[in-house]
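Board notes (copied after class):
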Amino acid sequence: MSTIEKTQEEVSVQELVGINNEIVLYNDDVNTFDHVIDTLIRVCEHTSEQAEQCAILVHYKGQCTVKTGAFNELKSQCTQLLEAGLSAEII
């Protein structure tokens, strides 16, 4: 007869969920679809399809998460989105 051993590992909640933040892009009445798509491709390195889908979601839902990662990695990208006239924040 063989013995099966179970071990329980302690893992912090922060490790389980990660320390990811999100850049959320918000809808506005100023920017065109083309500007939003071009900016997402340039700043967030989206493919044209990804950028178009995000632009559509922002338009119809009011917001969309366009990038996830560590805060330090997202800070400059969010700043570039804001400088391009888009409404975004890191949450």
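Comment from the instructor: DSSP finds four helices and three strands in the chain. Helices lie at 13-17, 33-44, 48-61, 71-83.
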